[in-house]
UniProtKB/TrEMBL annotation, chain B:
Protein name, per record: ABC transporter permease
Subcellular location: Cell membrane
Membrane topology reported for the UniProt record: Multi-pass membrane protein
Keyword Cytoplasm attached: no
Length: 276, 261
């Protein structure tokens, strides 16, 4: 393949010194991230793990070019990001399908947009069919979203992203609304897809097991304002079992790091607001 | 016992009940004529049998075709004009909070004025003929379309817009691929309301110095003392209105998959 070698381009996605806050003019702002950096190598899957409200979704919006950080910046292939990048695919927490389009049309949505790479109609159709085959939904092409189960809908959302053949996947808790059994299946599917296409991915999650099962690397976000409080490399081969001894050791360390961050850091956000 | 037999059974029961309702209406109508006949010798011409007889004659002699087509043309032209005017205004009002607050008072005020009150002014401006009718019917239909469109835009799922943005959609793509299909259901609801209002207002409007249309035909039968034909026109107006509404409902069901609203 003609992919650039990792040596020339050490990171496909690089976020450096991201700071982010929300607030109204004049009022004290809610500082969400203070200084977060992340390097994503080609084909690597990084899980960004953190408690609810730490700023994971906000971070992912920044990585996707949907939100401008207060400080720092994002580079894709060394070029600084100014808006959504055509080779970066995004999957949200809810499937976000368009109810007036069939499954097939939903998967193809956006492929013909002006700022997307130009594809002829035949290639577009093939891409859509391939992506649907990848998530194993060929039998439901003409179905509307209201006729799909939650797991099927999330698979359609994944296929919509895959049809654009992204080099980098950004996933915001994509399976958190699913039941445990379906979630396991989806995790396996995602693992197979990223391995097959050598897709790099940032997987945002608050589920420690999900991070342990899927990630090559885990970046732990914590504290108030949020920052990186720990990093682990997981080298176990796939498929993994979350209760394996090695993974259990990492889990204990993660829980410990979160506990330390809470004790050392400033009081939780709710408390701060109550005092102010 | 299979799944399809249940809705089939339900819908045939519904049709049965609605036929029964029409039958009751017919009985009440006959009774009314019977009672009225005691004090008013002319009442016989208004009876169901005379009415349907006249209706059959008029239809067979093709005498209503021109009037019906003219009336339907007026409905369609005014509806299209109202859509052309109302949808862009509705989209603008629905997407801008400032525009919404600054127009809502004025819209509610204008909406509550019976369009017929504009009649003298419409005639003064547009003269006599089709133009004032189009004007009156258009301002009748434009309010439900504006209000439903803007409500539709306001209820658009913000995540659909985020999705479009993540695909680097242009403004035009956001409008045509998200906003328009996402509000179509509301627009069609507005169309259905608008058709009902146009149809009701059409008849008095057509009594305004024009020489065709169902409203004109009613005045004409009155002048000719052809009361059974007058009743026939009334029945036809009801039937056409019913069909137009059913058509609007069908369009909604056909174009708007479940879950869009
Ligand atoms: N659009 C916004 N305007 C103002 N504040 C926001 C906005 N989005 C997020 N925040 C705030 O930023 C903080 C982080 O939110 P974010 O959604 O990024 O967290 P998260 O880690 O994704 O949480 P969760 O796991 O619950 O999804 C929260 O305190 C939230 O109130
Ligand atoms: Mg989130």
């Amino acid at each position: 393949m003609s992919k650039p070698t990792p040596m020339l381009h050490p990171a496909v996605l690089e976020a450096s010194h991201i700071a982010l806050s929300y607030g109204h003019a004049g009022r004290a702002t809610n500082v969400v991230l203070r200084d977060f950096s992340l390097q994503l190598k080609a084909g690597e899957v990084v899980a960004v793990l953190g408690p609810s409200g730490v700023g994971k979704s906000s971070l992912l919006r920044v990585l996707a070019g949907l939100q401008t950080p207060d400080n720092g910046g994002v580079r894709v292939h060394g070029e600084s990001l100014k808006g959504p990048h055509p080779r970066v695919g995004l999957v949200f927490q809810d499937p976000c399908l368009l109810p007036w389009l069939t499954l097939e049309e939903n998967v193809g949505f956006g492929l013909d947009f002006r700022h997307q790479p130009v594809l002829d109609a035949k290639t577009r159709r093939e891409r859509v069919r391939d992506a649907i085959a990848e998530v194993d939904l060929q039998h439901a092409l003409g179905h509307y979203p209201s006729e799909l189960s939650g797991g099927m809908a999330q698979r359609v959302a994944l296929a919509r992203c895959l049809a654009r053949q992204p080099e980098i996947l950004l996933l915001d808790e994509p399976f958190s609304a699913l039941d445990e059994i379906t979630r396991g299946d989806m995790q396996t599917l995602l693992q197979q897809i990223t391995a097959r296409h050598k897709t790099a991915a940032v997987l945002v999650t608050h589920d420690i097991d999900e991070a342990l099962v899927l990630a090559d690397r885990i970046a732990l976000l914590g504290g108030q304002p949020g920052g990186l409080i720990g990093e682990w490399r997981i080298e176990q081969p796939h498929p993994r079992d979350a209760v394996a001894a090695e993974l259990t050791r990492v889990r204990v360390e993660i829980v410990q790091a979160l506990r330390d961050a809470r004790r050392a850091g400033s009081p939780p956000a709710e408390l701060q607001r109550a005092v102010a | 016992m299979n799944a399809t037999s249940i809705p089939l059974h339900r819908s045939s029961a519904r049709i049965g009940l609605s036929l029964f309702g029409l039958f009751v209406l017919l009985v009440l109508w006959s009774l009314g004529i019977h009672v009225l006949g005691k004090s008013m010798p002319l009442a016989g011409a208004l009876s169901p049998s005379d009415t349907f007889h006249s209706l059959y004659d008029l239809l067979a002699r093709n005498e209503l075709t021109r009037h019906t087509l003219t009336s339907l043309k007026r409905v369609m032209v005014s509806l299209l004009a109202a859509l052309a005017l109302g949808v862009p205004i509705g989209v603008a009002v629905g997407s801008s909070r400032a525009l919404d607050s600054s127009t809502s008072g004025a819209f509610q005020f204008l909406r509550m004025i019976s369009p017929l009150s504009w009649m003298p002014i419409a005639v003064m401006i547009f003269g006599i003929g089709d133009a004032p009718i189009y004007f009156l019917l258009t301002i009748t239909a434009v309010w439900p379309i504006i209000l439903n469109t803007s409500a539709g835009v306001r209820q658009l799922n913000p995540r659909w817009l985020l999705l479009a943005r993540s695909l680097s959609a242009t403004r035009g793509e956001i409008l045509w691929r998200i906003v328009v299909p996402g509000t179509l259901g509301h627009v069609l609801t507005g169309v259905r309301v608008a058709i009902g209002m146009i149809w009701i207002l059409l008849i008095p409007c057509e009594m305004l110095g024009v020489s065709s249309g169902l409203g004109y035909f009613i005045l004409d039968t009155r002048d000719r003392l052809a009361y059974s034909e007058l009743m026939a026109a009334i029945v036809l107006i009801g039937a056409l209105g019913f069909l137009l509404d059913a058509l609007a409902q069908r369009l909604h069901r056909h174009w708007v998959p479940a879950g869009t609203d």
